[in-house]
Amino acid sequence: MQFVDEARFAVRGGRGGDGSVSFNREKYKPRGGPDGGRGGDGGSIILRATEDLSTLEPYARRQVIKAERGKHGSGNNRAGESGEDLILEVPLGTQVFDGDGLLADLSEPGASFVVARGGEGGRGNGSFATSTRQAPAFRERGMPGEEREILLELKVLSDVGLVGLPNAGKSSLLRALSAARPRVGDYPFTTLSPQLGVVDQKAYKGPFVVADIPGLISGASEGRGLGNRFLRHVARARLLALVLDASEDPEGAQGTLISELHAAGLSERPTVTVLNKVDLLDEELRSYLRDAFPGAFLVSAATGEGVVEFRDHVEGMVSRMDRKTAPAGTEREHRVYKPTWRGLRVGRENGGFVVSGEEVERLAMKTDWENPEGVERFQRELEKSGVVGALRRAGAEQGDEVRIGEAVFDFR
């Protein structure tokens, strides 16, 4: 499966089912009243983090994902079946964004977030029977589900991130440290996507995850090369191992890495320096590197020299670090309706009047405009809620066009 760390698509909750208009027609019940049931609620779309995925590739070519709509109500007060929720599994470390910013950070197994809620089912005529209105012949329509465009960004979760310039030998070092087998070639930019390996030795109390991060180049913090796509994964690593090619200007490579990490705000992250490919050096050069890079590990991923000592040191650092886990889900308040004005607002537009407000917009969306009784009920509710009075005060006269949400009608 191809590694994909970004996906953008629209999500749409299921529409609620319509209520039913029905009257009891059973034998021996001459006064059987209205018994239309309500519609079922629409299904919601839920994102859930799983350890079974490591890429967003399943969503790379999706444009719109919809949940199931609720079933319509029926006679004998039978409610429609609710639409089934649609659960989309995403890799650990997935962040969810919309146009207003971060919605959720799914960094724990099983963490979930409702990204698009299903619409509410409409009531049937059985719900509107009263002592003064004993035979209502109207129902409510189901509400549409929430719809939004989202961006998923995957930030690989790891204990140790191997950071280095292209061709520093990070993939080879990952092979030497773990059972991971990334493809390795004799050319720059071998790794174009993060590769994960688990270091799991019997001597260790707990395994830890090492990530081979795509090669960094100068200017990555400004978008050059893989740019922010590289830095996105570095930001999730708890410990950074700076892998330098000991045979080719390790001082310059270290300066570039430190400069880019500082520009990205990652200079405070714990680091350890690794000089790779020391099998290509004589003893004089090795001695020079020990003096020039005090505390650094001299290793050869090709021969295994120094790998065990480096691995043990990293395991000790990881075990001493307090795990700082991100919150399972950071949810912002969001609503199905736009605008989310809670009061009542009347304004002029193109020679007519526009009424906005959460309750009045809900009322318009639920009204069955093909049912005369339903339209009459809508007009009564406008009078009771003060909308008619507000329109008159704004200067509305009989015959003027009024728009509430998507509903357009003439003022009476």
Automatic annotation (TrEMBL):
Domain OBG-type G: 158-319
EC category: hydrolase
Domain OCT: 333-412
Location (main, coarse): cytoplasm
Domain Obg: 1-157
GO MF annotation list: GTP binding; GTPase activity; magnesium ion binding
EC number: 3.6.5.-
Protein known as: GTPase Obg
Its job: An essential GTPase which binds GTP, GDP and possibly (p)ppGpp with moderate affinity, with high nucleotide exchange rates and a fairly low GTP hydrolysis rate. Plays a role in control of the cell cycle, stress response, ribosome biogenesis and in those bacteria that undergo differentiation, in morphogenesis control.
InterPro entries membership: G_OBG, GTP-bd, GTP-bd_Obg/CgtA, GTP-bd_prot_GTP1/OBG_C_sf, GTP1_OBG_dom, GTP1_OBG_dom_sf, OBG_GTPase, OCT_dom
Organism annotation: Rubrobacter tropicus
Positions annotated to bind Mg(2+): 171, 191
Membership in a protein family: Belongs to the TRAFAC class OBG-HflX-like GTPase superfamily. OBG GTPase family.
Protein origin, superkingdom: Bacteria
CC cofactor: Mg(2+)
